[in-house]
Amino acid sequence: MKDALLRKLHSHDAKIGVVGLGYVGLPLLIEFAKAGFPVLGFDTDSQKNAKLKRGESYIRHIDPARIQTVFNPSAPDPRRADATSDFSRAAECDAILICVPTPLTEHRDPDLSFIEATGKALGPHIRKGQLIVLESTTYPGTTDEILAPILEQACGLKAGHDFFMAFSPEREDPNNAQFRTATIPKVVGGMNPDSLAVAQALYDQVITRTVPVSSCRAAEATKLVENIFRCVNIALVNELKIVFTEMGIDIWEVINAASTKPFGFMPFYPGPGLGGHCIPIDPFYLTWKARQYGVVTKFIELAGEINTSMPKYVVHRAMEALNQHGKALKGSRTLLVGLAYKKNVDDDRESPTYILWKELLRHGAQVDYFDPFCPVVRPSREHADLAGMRSQTWDGIAAARYDMAIVSTAHDQVDHNALAGMVDLVVDTRGACAPAPNVIKA
Questions:
Q1: Domain contains 430
Q2: How does pLDDT run across 335-387, given as a tens digit for each residue?
Q3: What is the number of domains present in the chain?
Q4: Residue whose C-alpha is closest to residue 71's, from 87, 60, 58
Q5: What pairs with residue 401 in β-bridges?
Q6: Cα angle 296-300-305, degrees, rounded to a multiple of 5
Q7: How far apart are CA 73 and CA 93, in angstroms?
Q8: Which of 24, 89, 132, 192 could pair with 170 as two cysteines, CB 3.0-4.6 Å apart?
Q9: What integer is the mean pLDDT of 293-300?
C-alpha cells in the first residue's frame, strides 16, 4: 500500500486534494499543479470555486495569471484541476491536505469546529491507501486525538494502518518577496513511520526542503514555538516602547541601532497590537493544552496580556495628544490608516485596527478608515457592525479635515509623510512618519 502511493507520488500521477482555498490552501494547490499533479480544491464557499474556474483571484497578492496556469478558463480540464464544494469527491484523491481556520472562542479557548466539520465531511469518503495531512495550526495531539478518530468512525478504517496520517504546519507569509510556498522548508510529522515516509515524499515533490520530525505532536508543537517566539519578542518591544516613550526616547531609532550588531540580536518592532491568523491566536492553543497537564504558562500569558493591551495604550496616547491640541477625543473626526493586519496585504483577520476602531467609538469619536488594500470592510462574526464600511479615498483625506489620523498599518505605497501634511495630528504606531511637530509616536 505504501509502495503503491510512493510510486504515484514520484511519477506525479497522484491526485492531490486541498481543503480550504484561502491564504494557505490556494498557494499550496498552485504549487502541486505547477509540478504536474492533478489537483482538486475543496471549499465550502462556492463563489471561490467559481472564481478559480474563471481564472480569477480573490486574494490580492496572488496574481490571476498564477490561477490561470492551473485553471485554464479557455480550455478547462477537470482531470487536471478542479474546485468543488462536493466532499464526496474526496474519494478521487490520493492525498488530501487540510488547510482550514483554527480560531479562538470568545473565551480564548481553541475552536476546532472547522477541523471537526472537515473530518466529518471527508470521513465517509476516505478509502484505503490515502494520505490525510492536517496543516492547520493547533495544539499538540489534535491530529491523533481529534481528527483521526473522526475519520475512523466515519469510514470504518484505521488511521496509520488502512490510511496514512500526518501533520505539516503551514508557514505562509503572505506577500513575502523573499520566500514563497515552494522555498519555505516544510516540517513533517507522521502518525507512524509509513505515514511519515509518504507525507515527506509528497512534499518533496514541490518543496525545496522537508524537515522530518518524530511525530504529529512534534510537528504541531514546532509551529506553536515559531509563533510564540514572535509573540513574546513583540510583547517585549511593545513594553520597551512604553518605557522609552516616557523617557523621551524613540524605540524605532534604538531598535535600528541595535540591529547593527552582527550577532546576538534580532529586531522585532512594536505596533498597536497583534494581527493575523497566527501570532494573536497560537500561543493560547498551547496555554489551553498546558492546563490539562497542570502547567501554567506564565511567560506566554504575560506576553499575550501586553500585546492585547496595546490598542488601549494607543487610544490613551491619542487622547493625550488631542488634549495638547485643545481638542477632546469625544466628537473628534479620526482616520484610521491601515485596516489589514500587516503591510502590503489585503488580509484583515484579527487586525488590531478593529480593536482601535471599537475603542475610539466607545470614547465617542467619529471614525473613518483608509486602506488601499481593503476598500470595503468584509463581513465577519466579530465585527458585523462594521461590515460594508468603505475606505476613505486618498484625495478625500485633506478635504475631510480630520482632527487626527492613527497609523495602524503602514503600507509601502502610502506616503505617510504626505499624510502628516494633510491632517492636524498623526499618531504613528509603526514608525512610518518622519519626525514632525504634529507627529506623535505611540
A1: yes
A2: 999 999 999 999 898 899 999 999 999 999 999 999 999 999 998 888 889 99
A3: 2
A4: 58
A5: none
A6: 105
A7: 22
A8: 24
A9: 92
